[in-house]
Sequence to fold (636 residues):
Amino acid sequence: MNLLQKVGQRLISKAENEMSLEEYLKLCKKDPLMYATASERLLAAIGEPVQVDTRKDERLGRIFSNQMIKIYDAFKEIYGLEVPLKDVVSFVKHAAQGLEEKKQILYLLGPVGSSKSTIVRILKKLMESVAFYAIAESPVYDNPLSLFSPEDSKVLGIPERYLSVIPSPWLTKKIKEFNGDISRLKVVKLYPNEANQIAISHIEPGDENNQDISSLVGKLNIRQIGEYDVNDPDAYSFSGGLCQGNRGIVEFAEMFKAPIKSLNPLLEATQSGFYKGTESIAAIPFDGIIIAHSNESEWQKFRTDKRNEALIDRIFITRIPYSLRYSEEQKIYEKMLKESSLSEAPCSPKTLETLAQFSVLSRLVNTKHGDISIKMKVYNGESLKAKNIEAKSVYEYQKEAHDAEEEEGFFGQSTRFAFKILAQTFNYDTQEVAANPLHLLFILNDKIKQEHLSQEDEKKLLEITKYLSAEFLKFLDGEIKKAYIESYDDYGQNIFDRYVTYADNWLSEEDYRDPLSNMLMTAKDLEEFLEEVETPAGISNPKDFRNEIVKFCLRHKAKNDGNNPRWTSYQKIREVIEAKIFSNIDDMLPIISNTSQGTVKDKEHHEDFVSRMMKGGYTRNQIHVLIDWYIRSSKS
Fold:
């Protein structure tokens, strides 16, 4: 089956499927999903969570204080928002159980770019996956059970709470046309569909001078006035968001920008399950989920107006902050890159992590307990107690931040801002489309100065970039040294072999004659060489250290035909030799420098070094740029 056939079959499988009312009622006795409410269907689509015992994972245990957490596969695209997502699912679950949430609006409150729209998009997609049943041709997808009353519960075998729905004016007229013979009505199986506005609708606030309730409840169809009376359902256009979103989801973006009078139908729709149209037609049913979202400033403006108290009482607030874990923030950027043409472009190590750390640091409340970077690492689940006595627990930092003027996670740089920076970084170099932390930090510094921020905010963000620049220099130092050592492996082995031989003779208090130069080395000569190797690493007890290394080497020789171990095989001596090798950056220059100076062997080592850096994720051009910056920064 080719692609076109597969798409055709998929569309057919979701096409309308008509049946008689009697057939529908028989199926209801077997399958409760046949008459499930919108929230019940959405809950079924969300599925069961995976229960994660964070006590079994050290990092998660530190983040979530060893509590059980729920992870929903349906929200795998959302990173670092386990608690808000749990609240969203709780709302849907309680509404499905017929509790107070059934009469409320789910309101996602958060700063710009905090995944509010993404959460709504996922919920709408989930809603599309479960079918519902409606009276055929109904403009508001009338529930077939609206034809019955709670007294019919026992006969139908359906709980009473599902039989309290009212029929629409259109359905009431249709029944009259059939002289009460409801068996002539057909029931159709439908799948909610946002594109076709089937049980999923989207509303945005219009001009506050002319927006009326018609965007919610529909309006009179002027073209039908000549044929029908103005109060005839057939003269009415059921084009409002509540009409099209009945039996599913109504999304109201930036709801509080709309005039309060245009929001009044929401009160009756949520409280009573029906609302009035703009004309004198009967009440129109509503049995769906209303989801609104906006930012903090719009909400604060709305809630301080006492005229809005009735609607505020109908709102279930779920706060959606920015992610405060940089490892999760980094996953957001990876997802965004994957969905763009930059997915194949080179992105050197540490680039996305540096940007994620910048974003998270900009969102954190300053702490009295040490540096804010420590707090960032603790929030990320890293264990710092052994390394830094100032480090507190996640709970302690959150408790401290609770008393701050601004709510942590509701200010700072958004993911959208970060991705714009990332896009500029990829296109910064004229020679290639690629990204590295150095160019990222350059762009961040320039952008911060162009944003016309307050002096305090600008200073904070520039301090963050300064910290990240120092952190990247440390990281790059390790990357270069790793590639350098592997390129200059023979040199490290030579120092190791000489160190072991000289240390063995020094411990035995014997002179040593070098077999190559035939030079006799006294105990003093041996001591000078050993100290030269040990001093850069700050060895405080050289005799014990030399004894430990010699014993390790002798044991290895005994098991390996008298061969010395690799100089990298024992961490203690490896660190000492690395310190010796890197004690003077000038010694490294012939190998790591981009200049053409040096011996033929140095050039070979340089190419070997570059090759290893490229295997580590850097392009040749990035290596050139980063090495020049590293040399300048190390000497300054």
